[in-house]
Write a structure and sequence with these properties.
The structure is a homodimer. By secondary structure, chain A is an alpha+beta fold. Helix content of chain A is about 15%, strand content about 25%. The first copy, chain A, has a domain of about 200 residues: Cyclophilin, CATH 2.40.100. In chain A, about 50% of the residues are buried. Chains A and B meet through loops of A and loops of B.
Chain lengths: ~300, ~300
C-alpha cells in the first residue's frame, strides 16, 4: 500500500510524457537535431503578387534532373512563365513562358530515369508500419522514401516536387515542374522523377482556382498566375537568400515525433491509431536566421 | 511457330484490357452499377458568390448526428454563417452566424459517440491491401471504411465531412462541420464523428485563402466567406434539387476500378504499384438528370 503513490506517480509521469503533441516535440528539439539546407539546394520562385515559394532540391536522389533544373533557373527559363495547371486533390504545375523557346544550351533535353537509388548507398530510418505501395517505408536524410531492400526512392507525399513528362521512355527535362496538393498519389512513385519539396509558400499554389480544362489545365492564358522569376538561392544576393533547416530524420526528436503522430495521446484524442501512413508524417522544417544556422 | 500469332494476340488482348484507365472503367460502367442518392441524404450549401457545395450525408453510420444536422438546416442554422477555418493540407470548417444564437429547440446539444458501427450489421467489400491505421479497409455501401472484425467505421479521406467538437467526452452537436482537404488525417478516425462527404463544389472550399490564425482559423471576420444558406435537398423546390449517384462499391465495375488504380498499366506508367491506399480510391460519383435516375 505504501508503494501505491510512487507507482502511480511513475505512471502519471509517463502519461504526461505521452500526452505531448507532435508540434510540442518539434518545438523542444535541440538545435543539434536540426540540419541546415545549403542555399545551393534551395530554389526560390517569386510569383505575381509578391508571393514567394521556396523549394528544397534533392540532388542526392535525382542529380541529373536537379543539375538541369539549376541550369534552367540560371538561364531564367521560368521568368515570365506561369502556373499552368491546378487539379484539385492532385497537383499544381508550372512552366516557362509560352510559346516555349528552345532549351538553353547548357541544359540537357535527355535525362536518365532517376526513379530509384541503390539502397546500399542510402541511409534509411524505417517506419515500423505497413504500406500499400512499398515493402519498406521511412526516411532518408530528411526525405520520405519507399524501399524494397535493393532500392530506395522518393515518394509522392503532399508538397513533393516532381518533373512533368510525356509518355515513356521520356523522363522529363525539368522544364515543367509540379507539386502534390492532395492525397498522396503514390502510384506515381518510380514512374516520375521527384526532385524536391516545397518548404514555404505552398498555400500560394494550393489556394489557386482549379483549372477547368482537362487534367486541371487552365483553358485561358489569362487564368494563369504569372511567375516573376525562379532562382537558386545561392545565385541570389546574400540578403535575399532564405535559410531553412529540417529536423534530422535519424534524430531522437524525429523518432519521438513520428511515434507520437502514430499514437496521439494528447487530450483531444479518444483512441490512438497505433499506426500512421508515411505521408502523414511530414518532415518538420523551419526558416532560420543566418546567425542561428548550425555550425558545421 | 504457327501458334505464335494467336498466342501473341491473346497476350495483346489482355494487355489492351489491362491498359484501361480507372476513368475509362467508370465511364463504361453499366447503369445498373450506379445507385441513386435520395434527396433526403443531400445537403446543399450555397456560398456567397453563387458557388454551391453538395454534401452526401451518411445516416447509416451517424444517424443521430445526421438527424441533428438536418434539423439545424431546417432551422436555417447556417444561413448567414461562414467558412471560418482553412488549414492547408488539413481541413476547411464552417459554422453558423456569430455570435452563436442558442440551438433551435428541435436540435440536440448532446449526441452519442457515433464513431463506429457493429460489423455484423454492415456490408463490407474489403480491399486486399495493408493499411497503417486499421486491420481491414474497404468500402461499405459506397463509403470508405476501416474495420477490425467487430466494428466498421468511416475514414477521414479527402472530401469526407466531419463534426467539429471540443475536448472529450464532447462529441460535437453538428453545428460546426469540416471537410478534409489534404493528406488523409486518419488519426481522427474513431475520434470524431464523420457524417458525409462532399460530392460537388469542393474547389469552392479548397481554393480559399488559408487562415493565418491558429489552426488555420481566419483572424478577421471580413476574411470569412459568407454562407448564404444550407438546406437538405429534399426541402428545396423540386426544380432546385440536385441528383447524384455513386458507383456501387459491391459492383463488378467498382472492383475493376480499384484493381486498376492499384495496378496502373495505361501508357503513362512505367511500373504499376501492386497496391493502393484506401483514400487513394475515391468512390466515383456523378450528377444525373431526374429522368436518368435508376428505377427502384
Amino acid at each position: 500500500m505504501r508503494r501505491a503513490f510512487p507507482v502511480l506517480c511513475v505512471l502519471a509521469c509517463i502519461s504526461v510524457a505521452q500526452a505531448q503533441t507532435p508540434d510540442e516535440i518539434v518545438a523542444q528539439a535541440p538545435k543539434s537535431d536540426w540540419q541546415d539546407i545549403p542555399p545551393s539546394d534551395l530554389l526560390v520562385m517569386r510569383l505575381s503578387g509578391h508571393r514567394q515559394v521556396v523549394i528544397q532540391l534533392a540532388p542526392d536522389f535525382a542529380p541529373e534532373h536537379v543539375r538541369n533544373i539549376v541550369r534552367l533557373a540560371q538561364a531564367k527559363w521560368w521568368d515570365d512563365g506561369a502556373i499552368v495547371r491546378v487539379q484539385d486533390n492532385y497537383v499544381v504545375q508550372w512552366a516557362g513562358r509560352a510559346p516555349h523557346p528552345s532549351l538553353p544550351s547548357q541544359a540537357s533535353a535527355h535525362l536518365p530515369a532517376e526513379y530509384e537509388h541503390p539502397a546500399a548507398k542510402t541511409p534509411l530510418t524505417p517506419l515500423p508500419f505497413t504500406d500499400s505501395y512499398a515493402p519498406i517505408v521511412g526516411f532518408s536524410a530528411g526525405w520520405p522514401v519507399g524501399g524494397d531492400g535493393q532500392h530506395i526512392w522518393l515518394t509522392h507525399c503532399y508538397g513533393m516536387v516532381g518533373v512533368g513528362r510525356d509518355m515513356p521512355p521520356d523522363t522529363g527535362d525539368g522544364t515543367e515542374l509540379y507539386t502534390v496538393i492532395g492525397e498522396a498519389p503514390r502510384q506515381l512513385d518510380r514512374n516520375i522523377a521527384l526532385v524536391g519539396r516545397v518548404l514555404d509558400g505552398i498555400d500560394a499554389l494550393t489556394a489557386l482556382p482549379r483549372g477547368k480544362g482537362e487534367m486541371g489545365f487552365y483553358r485561358e492564358a489569362a487564368e494563369r498566375l504569372p511567375i516573376a522569376q525562379v532562382r537558386r538561392a545561392a545565385d541570389l544576393p546574400v540578403s535575399e537568400q532564405p535559410h531553412w533547416q529540417f529536423l534530422r530524420t535519424d534524430s531522437a526528436s524525429f523518432a519521438r515525433y513520428w511515434q507520437t503522430r502514430a499514437n496521439r495521446r494528447d487530450r483531444f484524442f479518444v483512441r490512438p491509431a497505433n499506426g500512421v501512413a508515411l505521408c502523414n508524417v511530414p518532415v518538420p522544417t523551419r526558416p532560420v536566421s543566418l546567425e542561428n544556422r548550425t555550425p558545421r
